[in-house]
């Protein structure tokens, strides 16, 4: 029963969790600027440590390095306790905010610190001379102090898992509108994770209680429970990372879409020779690329401010409405495109327009102007009508 080679392999869950931790690089500096994301990183580090140190080869290594038989047992139990504690705080922070989590942190830290201290005290008092790599829980289930050690870590782990699971499922079925999308997916995975954690504890306790009553159900502790724990670890990594990485992916898609949306305006200014370039600093991600393009376009439009014709803006808006453009963004986009292209043609003229348009009218509509540039027929129609109305006004004045 107690073998170094015959065991549920936690290396794959550990590798998955480590890969999930590395995936935080997708959020780059914003990961470390966000306390919730930093907490997720710390929690995943604990999860990786649990999966690494729970494997029999690592258990043997810890025992050999320290020279104390079975010292790996309280060490693994401590990691499990800290991980369950971290999960509880993380869910509270997600659901009720970091301020609420900080208020809960005080008394929960005291409770779980006491549990960790008790684990090591009980191990020091217990007589566990025979190294048990896989079945420490059941082999020493009736040994004084070791028995209490085993029950304490399982109860502490189960208590945190039960409370956390209750918070997750109540949040999922609360009917609140903010629980949707990536957060909903992450919470569903965490709900499965904590359900499996409870299964892990029930299986372990069942095997221990069976030992107390003279029965042998060790396979529940050495086979079934580790399988539940391995799947739970994978769901934990997915559950905590999915909302953050999913939202970041969604934000990057939006940034790329906004970047592409500005392309016609960027190209117009570039072909006119007025586009101000921002210095490149290597390959830019979606957010940086959008910032550079938006900044270059805005700075170029600011340089055209003296040539933006307020009278043309008013006429173009009116003509766009007559042309059937919807009021608001679509009509303003067509009017802005007419004014901007006219300004490009008028730059360098000896006399700028009599009434200059407030440049913020253009800067506030850059995406809509870029959209209008994709509709050359509608833009040309509005431009011709503006020219015709100008000619009619001049003829009437004469």
From TrEMBL:
Transmembrane parts of this sequence = 39-62, 74-92, 104-126, 150-169, 181-200, 220-242
Q: Which domain of life is it from?
A: Bacteria
Q: Which InterPro entries match?
A: DUF6545 (IPR046675)
Record keyword Cytoplasm present: no
* DUF6545 domain mapped to chain residues: 255-356
> Which UniProt keywords are listed?
Membrane, Transmembrane, Transmembrane helix
Question: Which protein, by its recorded name, is this?
Answer: DUF6545 domain-containing protein
Q: Which organism is it from?
A: Streptomyces desertarenae
């Amino acid at each position: 029963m107690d073998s170094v080679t015959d065991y549920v392999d936690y290396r794959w869950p550990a590798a998955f969790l480590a890969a999930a931790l590395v995936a935080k690089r997708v959020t780059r500096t914003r990961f470390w600027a966000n306390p919730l994301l930093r907490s997720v990183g710390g929690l995943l580090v604990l999860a990786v440590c649990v999966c690494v140190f729970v494997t029999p080869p690592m258990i043997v290594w810890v025992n050999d390095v320290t020279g104390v038989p079975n010292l790996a047992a309280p060490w693994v139990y401590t990691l499990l306790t800290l991980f369950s504690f971290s999960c509880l705080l993380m869910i509270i922070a997600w659901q009720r905010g970091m301020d609420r989590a900080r208020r809960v942190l005080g008394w929960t830290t005291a409770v779980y610190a006491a549990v960790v201290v008790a684990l090591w005290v009980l191990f020091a008092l217990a007589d566990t001379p025979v190294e048990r790599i896989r079945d420490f829980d059941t082999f020493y289930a009736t040994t004084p102090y070791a028995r209490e050690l085993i029950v304490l870590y399982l109860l502490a782990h189960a208590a945190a898992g039960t409370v956390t699971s209750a918070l997750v499922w109540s949040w999922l079925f609360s009917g609140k509108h903010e629980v949707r999308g990536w957060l909903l997916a992450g919470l569903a995975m965490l709900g499965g994770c904590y359900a499996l954690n409870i299964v892990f504890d029930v299986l372990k306790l069942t095997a221990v209680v069976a030992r107390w009553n003279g029965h042998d159900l060790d396979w529940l502790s050495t086979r079934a429970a580790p399988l539940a724990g391995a799947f739970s670890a994978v769901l934990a990594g997915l559950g905590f990372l999915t909302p953050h990485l999913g939202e970041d992916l969604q934000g990057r898609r939006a940034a790329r879409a906004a970047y592409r949306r500005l392309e016609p305006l960027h190209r117009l200014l570039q072909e006119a020779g007025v586009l101000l370039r921002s210095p490149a600093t290597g390959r830019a991600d979606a957010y940086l690329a959008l910032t550079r393009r938006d900044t270059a376009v805005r700075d170029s439009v600011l340089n055209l401010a003296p040539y933006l014709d307020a009278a043309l803006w008013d006429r173009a808006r009116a003509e766009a409405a007559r042309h059937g453009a919807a009021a608001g963004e679509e009509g303003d986009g067509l009017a802005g495109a007419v004014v901007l292209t006219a300004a490009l043609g008028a730059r360098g003229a000896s006399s700028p327009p009599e009434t200059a348009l407030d440049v913020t009218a253009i800067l506030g509509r850059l995406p809509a102007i870029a959209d209008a540039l994709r509709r050359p027929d509608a833009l040309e129609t509005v431009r011709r009508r503006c020219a015709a109305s100008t000619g009619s006004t001049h003829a009437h004045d004469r």
